[in-house]
Amino acid sequence: MKLRVNVIEARNLQAMGLNGLSDPYVKLQLGKQRARSMVVKKNSNPVWNEEFSFLVGDPSEELMIYVLDEDKIFSDDFLGQVKVPLLKILDTDDLSLGTQWYQLQPKNKKSKSKDYGDIRLTITLSQRNTDEIPIVIPSFSVDHLSNSDKSTELAKGPPPLSSNGNLERSAVPVIDEMESVKGDKLNAMTLVNRLFHIFAGKNVEAALHSVRNLDCLEDLQEASASPEISERQSNDTCSNITFDELLKTMESKDQGGEMPGNLQGVLLDQSYVGAPGGLNSLIFSPSSNFLQSLAELQGTANLQIEPWRLENSGKSSKRVITYTKAATKLVKAVKATEEQTYLKADGKNYAVLASVSTPDVPFGNYFRTEVLFCIMPGPDLPSEDQSSRLLISWRMNFLQSTMMKGMIENGAKQGLKDSFAQFADLLSQNVKPLDQKDTGSNKGQILASLQNEQDSGWKLAFRFFGNFTALSSVCVAFYVLIHILLANPSIVQGLEFPGLDLPDSIGEVVVCGVLVLQGQRVLDMIGCFLQARKQRGSDHGVKAQGDGWLLTIALIEGSNLAAVDSTGYSDPYVVFTCNGKTKTSSIKFQTLEPQWNEIFEFDAMDDPPSMMDVDVYDFDGPFDEATSLGHAEVNFVKSNLSELADIWIPLQGKLAQACQSKLQLRIFLNNTRGIDVVTEYLTKMEKEVGKKINLRSPQTNCAFQKLFGLPPEEFLINDFSCHLKRKMPMQGRLFLSPRIIGFYANLFGHKTKFFFLWEDIEDIQVIPPTLASMASPSLLIILRRGKGIDAKHGAKTVDQDGRLKFHFQSFVSFNVANRTIMALWKARSLSPEQKVQMVEEESEATLHGEESGSFLGIQDANMSEVFSSTISIDLNSLMEVFGGTSLEQRVMEKVGCVNYSITAWEPVKPDVYQRQVYYKFDKSLSRYGGEVTSTQQKSPLPDRNGWIIEEVMTLQGVLLGDYFNLHLRYQMEDLAPRLKACNVQVSLGIAWLRSTEHQKRITKNVISNSSARLKEMFSQVEKESMVGK
């Protein structure tokens, strides 16, 4: 049975806004099923006219209707409620309460008697659904149905299917009492539901079973009477057709529409070897084990997959999947319900929209996560095998407004990114991903298919002069010529003399002026035509020279370009700029939908390109400034090369965005020297830096690419420990590659990462050492205006010109880091003249030390206890050693920490404080000397009976000190009032940044020395405290 509720209107609602009005909406709930109406702004007598339907599982339930006022800042305000028991509807003869006004009630009886207003509803119970497709899936999500025992009932009721899918008439039981059953059905239903509460007890489903069987009997009778109804109900209600038959049904109903566009962000865009139908069956077929394998990989439990069911007369299908997501560090295990709906299935293209609800998470009822799977034919392969492209995008669909929207979106983005990374890995184990070389090998065939038809001179002239201006000028010229032939010579008068005929009236002056202007326009058009005819060859077909990174661009066509000429058309041409070199296309005259089919090859480059600028101009003549029709940027670092093999690029700019202009390009980037290009690049950088640069292993490069989401051709050159200076210095690591400079930090569980291109850097300045920079020089990197927007969260300041400034300090080997960064910057972004000038200004300083080893990535340190003792002083006295007092200075100097300097504690979160510490080791503490920069974070214990101080320590000038960081955790608990003492526990862990064969030796040495140092430090604290007394 289905409950239909039509929410019509409300009147005399309370005013909750300052303007004396409200923003009301209605929430409906039946069991665990929920629905929500739209919001009517600023209205105390709103009109909705919205209909909702619910599946009835338990007749003893109540329909709850709440009227609320939407509040974008605080929680929504309560305006009133209505409770309607289902038994009240079942008591009526026609199973309907009709249309009537219901008085809104307060939340509880304690509320003061007020007039909350009224709401007008139409409430009806229906035995079967004749307008919509009946729902026959065996189980539903929490948000849609709480009862899930229909499968067994339907197995008993429906007749068997014939071979052609229609119901066999012989299978329909002939019952003499069918007419009486049909005629008395409403009364029987009412009687059955009344008796339900008397005799059923706990066996709810048994009591309802007879009611549902009556529905099935009636459906059977109608099936035997009407073949059309029989066929529809057999397909939509009582059929168990295979997945292939279901796809064929949707394919036959497909109307040839376009594939849906991408949602908010792209999670995966990859091509695979195999037909689109095979990939679709692997992911979505009920017989496939892909989802079960993915659930095991991700730790998902209680996976339940329901069968597909046809909807919308066979045009789409839907299924529901329920599962329990594995717990993470931040979120406990939660139950999720996923509705998958086929939006398109035509045999070649498939689109499936998945809507995921997680009501158990915080604010889970406020949003749905939507993921769109698009499967389409991929690029052609040389082996003539089929390929398919899988494009997965996502968005957050917020059902209610909330202040936590940004936080929810960021959390969902990171979770989806991690989840679909595992999805892609598992998928690649079942179907072969299309390698870049597979598409690259087909590059010649793709480019050979492009035919550039060169317009003839006459055709070009017709297109250029075939407009109103040119044709009207020709007509006027003929008219004037005929007039001259027919007119008699005028009499010389006024200031005229033979050979000079002046206008004799104002009208003749105006006509002469118009003719002169028209003639000037025609002459300008002729000049533009001659210049354009000379330039129409462009750079198309010019072959690239040399070996290295070879960039090839196929300019196919443009769409919806802006019209800037008076004729309503434009004369567009395209300019490509990459690594300081340009390529220009031919000019297409008088068109807004130009067809180029031209190929451009850039000469081989030693450095892999990062960006390519695409500018579209309108040709106005050889001496006039060109009008921009739009521009775009192609980012090779953030784009997948397989995606660039055939792409529509939207143009930016006022004219382009207004017209939604775009270009179709095919871009190919090939490395003709293989692995040699990497070694040659490193050799060149070694000459610039003046030291050996080691070639990193494939595992290291893979970890680097995964960390920043880089394409597979990017490789790591070097990485350095440093501090990112913002409001508070953040200890992390700086990564350098041929095209980017990136920063990553994982401090106390808070991860920060960003990167920007070398070409985005406008200037790099060296800041002299100061006390704030822990007596170490700093690097100030200034980006160009409008660049590096994605890395804005890492910038220290933004100047008045809109340039981002990044401040890096406390390098372990500043000279090596500075020299490497300057060399890479010069190689990527400076002109030859600027490079020569900088080389002349640089000193030939000798470099010492080397940062080598393989990068292992940032990992959490395994903590172990190195000191535990009871200190005979109170907690306040003990905390003075971390308070920046003179006691701290004396104690640290006595344990061998000289030049001890600290910053003040600054709040970073509620009850969380942070500061920076710098000192040098005394020779008695370390024979190598060395410096220490550390970040300390202080927070109270949960019972506020003590403090926890966490410290991340970086060693500089210590042998192999750049290979690891030290993590310390001090836990100090007050034992008062039992004892005037404190319990101190200190744990230490080593976070390895690079691999070394001396790890065990270093670990043993660090733990023993730290334990002795901590013992001496707290012993000195006790002595100083006793002296103070």
From TrEMBL:
Residues 263-435, 862-1025 form the VASt domain. Residues 148-167 are annotated as: Disordered. It is a single-pass membrane protein. It is found in: Membrane. It comes from the Eukaryota. Gene3D superfamilies: C2 domain, Pleckstrin-homology domain (PH domain)/Phosphotyrosine-binding domain (PTB). Keywords: Membrane, Transmembrane, Transmembrane helix. Residues 1-102, 531-649 form the C2 domain. Pfam families: C2 (PF00168), GRAM (PF02893), VASt (PF16016). GO terms for cellular component: membrane. This is C2 and GRAM domain-containing protein. It comes from Cocos nucifera (Coconut palm).
